[in-house]
Amino acid sequence: MALFERSKFARLMGGKKKVPDGVWMKCPACNQAVYRVEVESNQEVCPLCNHHFRIAAHSRIEYLVDEGTFVETHANIASTDPLQFKVGKETYTERVERAKGASGLDEAIITGFAHIDGHRLCLAAMDANFIMASMGSAVGERFHRAAMDAIEERVCMVCIAASGGARMQEGILALMQMAKTADAVRQMNEAGIPYITILTDATTGGVYASFASLGDITLAEPQANIGFAGKRLIEGALKVKIPEGFQTSEYQFNNGFIDKIVPRSEMRETVAKLLSYLTPA
Amino acid sequence: MAGKKKKSKGATDTILPFERHIFELEDKIRATESEEERKGLEKQLQQERESVYPNLSPWQRVQLARHSQRPRMLDYTTRIFDDVFELHGDRALGDDPAIIAGIARFQGETVMIVGHQKGVSTEEKVERNFGMAHPEGYRKAMRMYTLAERFNFPILSFVDTPAAHPGIEAEQHGQGPAIARSILQGLSTRAPIFAAVLGEGGSGGALAIAVSDHTAMFEHAIYVICPPERCAEILWRDVEKKELAASALKVTAGDLLGFGIIDTIMPEPGGGAHRNPDGAAQVLAEEIEKFLAASKKGQWSPQKRQEKYQRMGEWYEDLPPAACVVADQG
């Protein structure tokens, strides 16, 4: 059932580009037509069923931090093509260019400094519009540097995670970013820098199995898909039907892997509250 | 007669197409009674081996790495260690037979061992879930890291897994967080860590116990971000493109050494480890000996290990994206 909804969601996203000024949009969760403006003014949450749409990293930052305080860092770190990877006629370099065009971003993660309710922090936000927010060397390096910034400036680190996993086009080097980002977390731990993760739809694979699940405090948006192995892979491997609600935020909360499920509308005040406890003196 | 026929069929099942000619030559050598003919055939066999094995395609190496007769962790540990005391359980949920852990003695020195065991017989393979670990397995490994650190034992890790187990219970028990914490512990532990990639180093399930001061990889082993079949399915939308995916992913020991992900390639005896497990075990034992000797000289430190992983990856810095494209099209 969930799979069916996902494919519809993909179609909806595809259609969105063709009619950018459409007045109506369809919510993939409740299948109702809703005013686009109403959704957008509601932090891109369905006003009818509370479905949290997948949103761009810049929107996430806008909803989370004090207005005008975000200053991007490490935008100079970019992907290379270490494997000379090619699918059909498209090289990986061309794939990255296509992702840049589609997302308006230069990588799947944006890092920077910002304030939330006056607390200065270091922030990393991932964006599924960029090759499923997969993690290659540039993502790993940006995250690592952002963590080092947090240590140097003695501020909290907040990561808004979303990812399909490690980026296949960078092969084993992408896999090793799991170790690199885990080491960034290790350094924050040793330096006493608080690290908060916010898991969003979807946080999976190598990102979930590294820095996304190593937070001192783990928050998640409602109904996000969070897990290691993809549902389709599990279904294919085990030939079983996946239970309803599998790998949702609520499922992971019940299994003890999430501290609190926070609706998007309350994320800012929740993180602000945590920062008020945690910001290093 | 019928028995003989059956036996030869059984043997061909485990012979890969590119090995067939070699097996035929070996059969001929066994059958011949003429000393002269034998010498000729042996020379031919040597030449055939030298021409086949160094020139295997990446997909052929994947096949060798997964060869049903390739030695498994236990085939090595029984040959290499004086004795092994296996330890069980993750102290939370259960014991994962896909990961074997324990205390062992290597040339009189106490070491901590941990690794994937894929299984040999069908029964064992099922019991050990083909070496695909659950979170319980990674948590057991973490226990070993903790013990090794406390008692100052070096850790020897043996990597041989297609992937971490994709399953409902594994997710329920925290597969992602378990792998993440295992990696984190591999990075932080004060105990020196040696990792050997025996056959398949598959994805996060391998990396979870592969973070090390020194990683050695067998000549025909592979180490991948994901199985080539899965990559083919996702990027080419066709599982039959697995050979293409295997080439594109750069999975061989030579590739990995070039990227600085592993530190040494362990040469396999003629025809591969599965043709000569004793020889392969000898190679691995020598590598462990070197590692432990270097350890006594203080060659490894957590800081060096951490810095190694901090450096991993390739990226452009301060180069405008447009220039990258031009440079690449060069």
Description:
The complex is a heterodimer of chains A (281) and B (330). Chain A is an alpha/beta fold. Chain A has two domains: 1-53, no CATH class; 55-278, 2-enoyl-CoA Hydratase, Chain A, domain 1 (Alpha-Beta Complex), CATH 3.90.226. Helices cover 40% and strands 21% of the residues of chain A. Chain A contains eleven helices and 13 strands. In chain A, the strands form three sheets. In chain A, strands 3, 7, 8, 9, 10, 11, 12 and 13 form an eight-stranded mixed beta sheet that branches. In chain A, strand 10 (195-204), helix 8 and strand 11 (217-220) form a beta-alpha-beta unit. In chain A, helix 5 packs parallel to helix 7. The longest helix of chain A has 17 residues, at 2-18. Residues 1-20 of chain A have low confidence and may be disordered. In chain B, 51% of the residues lie in helices and 16% in strands. Chain B has 16 helices and nine strands. Chain B has helices spanning 2-13, 20-31, 35-52, 58-65, 73-80, 122-127, 135-151, 168-172, 175-188, 203-207, 228-236, 242-249, 253-258, 277-296, 302-311, 321-329, and strands spanning 83-87, 99-106, 109-116, 155-161, 193-202, 214-218, 222-224, 264-266, 315-317. Chain B starts with a helix and ends with a helix. The model of chain B is unreliable at 1-12 and 321-330 (pLDDT under 50). Strand 4 of chain A pairs antiparallel with strand 9 of chain B, so a sheet runs across the interface.
